Amino acid sequence: MSPPTMVQKPVGSVGNLKTPVVRLDSGANDTQVSFADWEKFNFAPIRESTVSRAMTKRYFNDLDKYTESDIVIVGAGSAGLSAAYVLAKNRPNLKIAIIEASVSPGGGCWLGGQLFSAMVMRKPANLFLDELEIAYEDEGDYVVVKHAALFMSTLMSKVLQFPNVKLFNATAVEDLITRRDESTGELRIAGVVTNWTLVTLNHDTQSCMDPNTLNANVVLSTTGHDGPFGAFCAKRLESLRPKSANEPFELGGMRGLDMNKAEDAIVKGTREVAPGLVIAGMELAEVDGSNRMGPTFGAMALSGVKAAESVLNVIDIRKKQNESCYGGSQN
């Protein structure tokens, strides 16, 4: 058992430590603080293979469970995690897989902008902060969280505690699973094609390594604006041509910064862009040709809330469609 981390009066022993765990001789000039008798401290014994089995067994059990998901969220940034929080809280019966290309989830939300730590959110995004119980300074029309990392770490912690959510990080989405209705010609998104991110980045340096797949009734993409993995689902959707030749799907391309226009446009525009594919956050700016907003984060959180609403409004329809083809759901 690890030692305690609060300075207090002696409370006995921890685990196999027989000496007082904490000593604080108040009033003495040479007061010393001791959390444990470190000379006698030791961890419980373990075999290396036990560590490996503890990790791999759980990972592959999760992979087996979530290869048939209700919802796959692509991108674990502020919009994706905000959506995951709302979805998991409101529908604990749904299996939600989050795919994040980076080793560290959180997207660009660890800093408030450039190298500055404070995070600005315009009202009414403070209501989402209240939901998460994150403190902020109220500046009238906007609020300030003392560090963007406080917002992200709190949100991430709450999301990952839900029993119906699994985060697969260091994993990239390489393609979309599609179904085309033979009678209407409508193209529906029915899951994602995945690979280890390091493999995805090195396809040109080695022989082909085929990917893996996760089926889902709805895919929610929040991969941000154009970049190495940015706007991936939107760009792939454009090449898939989900609409007829007379009405092709074309990306609008993100426009220059205009905070006042951008945040409203992102939240209002969050929607199911194609059957089975909801897009939120800055990826939506690439779809609609709306402005970027820069270092203000209210739209990211509330776009996630709107995305969760959009998902819940279509998931039963998409689930029924998926159950009618290729053997249906194998949950």
From TrEMBL:
The domain of life for this entry's organism is Eukaryota
A biological process (GO) annotation for this entry? Answer: thiamine biosynthetic process
Please state the Enzyme Commission number of this protein: 2.4.2.60
> InterPro entries per the record?
FAD/NAD-bd_sf, Sti35, Thi4_fam
Specify which residues bind substrate according to the UniProt entry for this protein: A79, E100, A101, G108, V173, D210, H225, M282, R292, M293, G294
State where it is primarily located: cytoplasm
| NAD as UniProt keyword | yes
Statement: the UniProt record of this protein carries the keyword NAD? yes
Query: According to its record, what are the GO cellular component terms?
Result: cytosol; nucleus
Which reaction is the catalytic activity of this chain? [ADP-thiazole synthase]-L-cysteine + glycine + NAD(+) = [ADP-thiazole synthase]-dehydroalanine + ADP-5-ethyl-4-methylthiazole-2-carboxylate + nicotinamide + 3 H2O + 2 H(+)
Q: Name one GO molecular function term.
A: cysteine-dependent adenosine diphosphate thiazole synthase activity
- Kindly provide the PTM information from the record: During the catalytic reaction, a sulfide is transferred from Cys-208 to a reaction intermediate, generating a dehydroalanine residue.
Which cofactors does it use? Fe cation
Q: Where does this polypeptide localize? A: Cytoplasm; Nucleus
Task: Mark the residues carrying the PTM 2,3-didehydroalanine (Cys).
Answer: C208
What keywords are annotated for this sequence in UniProt?
Answer: Cytoplasm, Iron, Metal-binding, NAD, Nucleus, Thiamine biosynthesis, Transferase
Please list which residues make up the signal peptide: none
Note describing how the cofactor binds: Binds 1 Fe cation per subunit.
Task performed by this protein: Involved in biosynthesis of the thiamine precursor thiazole. Catalyzes the conversion of NAD and glycine to adenosine diphosphate 5-(2-hydroxyethyl)-4-methylthiazole-2-carboxylic acid (ADT), an adenylated thiazole intermediate. The reaction includes an iron-dependent sulfide transfer from a conserved cysteine residue of the protein to a thiazole intermediate. The enzyme can only undergo a single turnover, which suggests it is a suicide enzyme. May have additional roles in adaptation to various stress conditions and in DNA damage tolerance.
Family named by the database record:
Belongs to the THI4 family.
Assembly state and interactors? Homooctamer.
- NCBIfam families cross-referenced by the UniProt entry: sulfide-dependent adenosine diphosphate thiazole synthase
Q: What is this protein called?
A: Thiamine thiazole synthase
Q: Which organism is it from?
A: Candidozyma pseudohaemuli
- UniProt gene name: THI4
